[in-house]
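Project channel, design review

CF: Before we commit to the Microbacterium azadirachtae constructs, I'd like one complete example in the thread so the newer folks can see what an input/output pair looks like. Taking Putative hydrolase.
RD: sounds good, go ahead.
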Amino acid sequence: MAEPVEIDRAAVRRARHGEPLPLLVLLHGYGSDERDLFSLVPFLPEGVAVASLPAPHDAPWPMPGRSWYPIDELERRDPASVTAAADAVLRWLDEEAGAVPSIALLGFSQGASVALQVARQDPDRIAAVVNLSGYAAPGELPGDTALRERRTPVFWGRGTRDDVIPPALVDHTAQWLPDHSELTGRVYPGLTHSVSEDELADVRRFLDGWLAEVQASSSREPAEG
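CF: and here is what came back for Putative hydrolase:
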């Protein structure tokens, strides 16, 4: 079992917060930090609060930035380190996101695997997941059955020239996601381990769908009184 880790709450970057808006949580990739994905805010839908979290570990020298879990555990069948990072995100949500009407996660690479792991740990809490150039961690979790039944919407985008994620993990994810989620997937010709404008446009449409469902659910709720 991996040791518990924590999110540095003082380092979290936020946008459009201060009222009970749906919350989109950004989880950066290996060797980056909370400032990286925060630059995507102008491309995200209006009417959503955004929080960009820092990973709990320093990336090993000489790599800059931070890490959600040791990079050498990428293909381990034991998901303990990914789960420890996901648990840290869930504890942050417990303290910081108790009143929001809906939560979605957007992760890149390592952060995408953590985003999926959060949804696997607490399927009822996470309404949608965006997986950019990422993967589903191998191994079984107790929440996987509930996630399969819930069919959480997941967007998975990756490039044909992405040589960072091992092919075995790509193959595993290509089998795992359709079985455990309502998958929207797209492969971008020529894209490396990065994000393109076309992909951002697709992400925007996916998140617009999430927000439309939040609004529809709100309108279906019975009035108090």
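RD: helpful, thanks. The beta strands are 13-15, 23-27, 49-53, 57-58, 66-67, 103-108, 126-132, 153-159, 182-188.
CF: The first strand starts at residue 13 and ends at 15.
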